[in-house]
Amino acid sequence: MIEPSGRRERKKAATRQKIADTALRLFLERGYDDVGIRDVAAEADVAVTTLFSHFAAKEALVFERDQGFERGLVRAVADRAPGEPLIPALRQEVHALVRHCTAPEAAPVRSLIVSSPALREYEESMRMRHADALAAAIAADLGVPDTSTACRTIARFVIDAYALACEAAEPGDAVDEVFRMIEAAWDASRLAPRLS
């Protein structure tokens, strides 16, 4: 997470974190469906409008690190060393994300998400957004249109690798298994030689 530099930015970041922490605590204590936006705002001692200035929807309160997830994937593409291959850089980033999301302390949040149809639906739409951002980053790196089928396909495979690994008995092994297939697909595409 990038540290806010000015006093105002730090205060906004602290308020955002306080709201997210409060919401997650309430959701875990009472259940997602039994906690309303007004409950979260009251407990966090903020106005409902303040809550919505930080989070667009109730579901977003559970996924407060969503932007960091997406930035990490995009940085894995854009911040590679010259000549560093794309797929291993993405594999390394997905391994880190999976380790974070499968750590024992993440289990209660994962259970909360799995138990709520609204949260599962939101997570799926979030994954599609991440795939679009990743595809755009890959395409920009290659200098091809962001509608490139190869870029969009690889991006979706990467997001699916993360999702499948989080559900696997051996998450690290699952990442490696899926990435072997991703690498083969990437090597077979017309774009791979441009990104070596």
UniProtKB/TrEMBL annotation:
Species this chain originates from: Streptomyces rubiginosohelvolus
Keyword DNA-binding tagged: yes
Limits of the HTH tetR-type domain: 13-73
Keywords: DNA-binding, Transcription, Transcription regulation
Lineage, highest ranks first: Bacteria, Bacillati, Actinomycetota, Actinomycetes, Kitasatosporales
Protein name: TetR/AcrR family transcriptional regulator
DNA-binding region (UniProt annotation): 36-55
InterPro entries with a match to the protein in the record: Homeodomain-like_sf (IPR009057), HTH-type_TetR-like_transc_reg (IPR050109), HTH_TetR (IPR001647)
